[in-house]
Design goal:
The protein has about 450 residues and is of the alpha/beta class. The protein is about 40% helix and about 15% strand. Helix 3 runs antiparallel to helix 11 and helix 4 runs parallel beside helix 11. One of its GO terms (molecular function) is pyridoxal phosphate binding.
Length: about 450
């Protein structure tokens, strides 16, 4: 079975069938929707995919964090098929369907926002979830501004791309919306020289407070929006002590704390959400935006907030045609059931332990491996020219990604300097596949350095 297979490359990449399809892609699609991987998928199972030429790849990207339960889970197929035979769609503004209600009830149970009485709405993508979370915060507080961070990625819609730090994602599409102000995220690996962690965290807190002095007064801020682990920014975890301090600043000033768990959510961190760790530390967010792995590959996103917050939104501000589509809700309910039943949070920690031990060895062995970080198995490896200067090494990362693909391992870069390799492997990967992937990645580093 493909789900238990190991990588096997039979043709030069791309193979002849893949090459023909990729050439058609170039004629039919905008080049700005970029892809440099030399394969065209024909089927996928677990953490493995097979291309149209019969080459088999181990996928450590998983649709950029979408496939936590892997490709083509048979129970997911059955759940969607069962729903499809009843009806595909019923817009919740017109006809209530119970699948939306069941999924909202489940999300209210598992999503760790601050208020224990919760409500959830559904949309279609991570960017939509973020936009709706911001609208909810503004409508509830009556305030116009939001605070975001350096290194942030929140999506490609107009507001979300304004919130996103890297302006390559918003080049030439201005003017951008007003009322978005940026503080410095605690990137400890590149923090102030000579500071210990506690001093660095205090430094970044002062940077946040400076925004209130120089950009938006605190009483005009509706929300602080942050990723518990920055994704596109380089897989940089928000230090827990910093989150505690941000939570206090929000509480002291009537500001809502929004956690963008689009990429971090659904078992990847060792808990269902990174915000579960925050909740245990007494600093749970007010609103959580989730997407990606929520429905195993069917477009769906969610915004969960305290009932008193979300009920403060005026009619007509939130909603949409496809949000909470019946097929997507059926899929999401089954995804959560599988994650809980198969203990994928615990599996995430097992995978993370093996990877962190191996990545740690590479830090000692290779001058170019500058940092290894993450929460659970949402992990990143930052590559530099040398450990002393910490000069980003995007060229090496680009070469490693290409080399790994030629040997059957799909990995992806991230980071403000494109010098981080991200680990987003499906949590259903087998131990043998994981070992094989680590071997391919290590040999690719050695071949390219």
């Amino acid at each position: 079975m493909l789900k238990n297979a190991l990588p096997k490359i039979n043709t030069p990449l791309p193979g002849p069938k893949a090459r023909a399809i990729i050439e058609r892609r170039a004629q039919a699609m905008p080049g700005a929707v970029k892809c440099s991987y030399p394969c065209v998928i024909s089927r996928g199972e677990g953490a493995m995919l097979e291309d149209v030429d019969g080459n088999v790849f181990l996928d450590w990207v998983g649709g950029v964090g979408v496939l936590n339960i892997g490709y083509s889970h048979p129970e997911l197929i059955a759940a969607v098929k069962e729903q499809s035979e009843k009806f595909f769609h019923a817009m919740m503004n017109i006809v209530t369907h119970e699948g939306y209600i069941k999924l909202a009830e489940k999300m209210n149970q598992i999503v760790p926002v601050k208020n224990k009485i919760r409500k959830t709405m559904f949309a279609n993508s991570g960017a939509e979830a973020i936009e709706n979370a911001v609208k909810i915060a503004k409508s509830f507080t009556g305030r116009p501004n939001i605070i975001v961070f350096s290194g942030a990625f929140h999506g490609r819609t107009l507001l979300a791309s304004t919130m996103t730090a890297k302006k390559a994602y918003a080049y030439g599409i201005g003017p951008l919306p007003d009322g978005v102000y940026r503080a410095e995220f605690p990137y400890l690996y590149r923090g102030p020289r000579g500071y210990n962690e506690a001093e660095a965290i205090e430094y970044y807190i002062e940077k946040l407070k400076k925004v209130f002095d120089e950009a938006s007064p605190a009483e005009y801020a509706a929300a602080v929006v942050l990723e518990p682990v920055q994704g596109e920014g380089g897989f940089i975890p928000a230090p827990l002590e910093w989150v505690k301090a941000v939570r206090k600043i929000c509480d002291d000033n009537g500001i809502l704390l929004i956690a963008d768990e689009v990429q971090t959510g659904f078992a990847r961190s060792g808990k269902m959400f990174v915000s579960n760790y925050w909740e245990e530390a007494g600093c749970a967010p007010d609103i959580i935006a989730a997407a990606k792995s929520i429905a195993g590959g069917i477009p769906l996103s969610a915004v969960t907030a305290g009932a008193h917050i979300i009920d403060g939104v005026k009619n007509g501000i939130i909603g949409g045609t496809f949000g909470g589509n019946a097929l997507a809700c059926a899929s999401a309910l089954k995804v959560i059931e599988i994650m809980e039943r198969e203990n994928l949070c615990e599996r995430s920690l097992e995978i993370a332990k093996k990877c962190r031990e191996e990545f740690g060895k590479w830090m000692e062995e290779y001058q170019e491996v500058g940092d290894v970080r993450g929460i659970g198995c949402m992990m990143g490896i930052e590559f530099v020219t040398d450990k002393k200067s910490k000069t980003p090494n995007p060229g090496l990362v680009s070469d490693i990604v290409a080399c790994a693909a030629r040997h059957g391992l799909i990995i992806e870069s991230a980071g403000a300097y494109s010098n981080v390799i991200r680990f987003l492997c499906p949590l259903v990967v087998t131990d043998e596949q994981l070992d094989c992937g680590l071997e391919i990645l290590k040999s690719s580093i050695e071949a390219c350095r």
